[in-house]
Amino acid sequence: MGIIFVRTVIIFITLLIIMRLMGKRQIGEMQPYELVITLIIADLACIPMADNSIPLLYGVVAILTVYLLHQIVCFIDLNFMQAKAVISGNASVVLNKNGIDDTQLKKNNLDVSDLVENLRVEGYFALDGIEYALYESEGTFSALPKKNYQELQTSLPVIILDEGKFDKKNLQQTKKDEGYFSEVLKKQGCKDLKKVLIMTVDGNGKVYFQEKGKKYKVFYLPWEEALW
Q1: How far is it, in rounded angstroms, from Cα 35 to Cα 16?
Q2: Residue 223: exposed, middle, or buried by beta-carbon count in 10 A (0-12, 13-18, 19+)?
Q3: How far apart are the C-alpha atoms of 111 and 92, rounded to whole Å?
């Protein structure tokens, strides 16, 4: 027991020193290569701590080697822009003045509902009130609202169509059926539901509608009163 205790203390101190030298940030702010290195170091640290048959020096040398690799990658990342794009990636603008960019979403293994969820977390609900939204290379999300955003966000929008599929729960909330919204789309020149990227409607009847590869549209349904 005493040997395991001593080995664990030595590995802990080594890791603490290395992580301080690496200048680690929060996990959510790590670049991809930083996360990989952190995971490798964690694995390397566990083996010599628990297995007495492995010389402690092996674990320390392995951790120091990973640290050296980290410094090399950091140097390349900071001094060569083309290499930086390959190693760390670039920011992805997933919403712009034309609407949602589903191509950029797919590149990041995301869908429209992921974007809507992230916007809500940031306090934004009206898609037409956002100028730009993007994901940084390390995964953090940010959005730039329009100047008149508060005027555009007057009621909570709900998703009616997501990637060509109706959300039945939200349909019930609107007190309308699929046929009603299908007719609405036909009037907007969309006869194929599969082409619909997203369609939302708020309690006042304001619709945000976008077909894949096209600019979004905003219009109002002739509702007699606000539904929520």
Answers
A1: 16
A2: middle
A3: 13
Q: Are 130 and 146 in contact (CB under 8 A)?
A: yes
Query: Helices 32-50 and 2-22: crossing angle, nearest 10°?
Result: 160
The DSSP 8-state label assigned to residue 129 in this structure reads G
**What does DSSP say about strands 196-201 and 165-166: parallel, antiparallel, or unpaired?**
unpaired
As a whole number of angstroms, the distance between CA 194 and CA 163 comes to 7
Alpha helices for 158-198 (secondary structure H) = 168-174, 178-187
pTM of the predicted protein model: 0.74
Residue 167 in tokens: 């959300």
Tokens standing for residue 16 = 């603490």
**Of 60, 48, 61, 40, which is closest to residue 4 (Cα–Cα)?**
48
SS3 36: helix
Tell me the pLDDT tens digit for each residue of 7-54.
667 776 776 676 666 654 444 566 667 777 777 777 777 777 777 787
Residue 145, phi-psi category: left (phi > 0), alpha (psi -120 to 50), beta (remainder):
beta
Distance CA 102, CA 108 (A): 10
Q: Provide the token pair at 75.
A: 């140097």
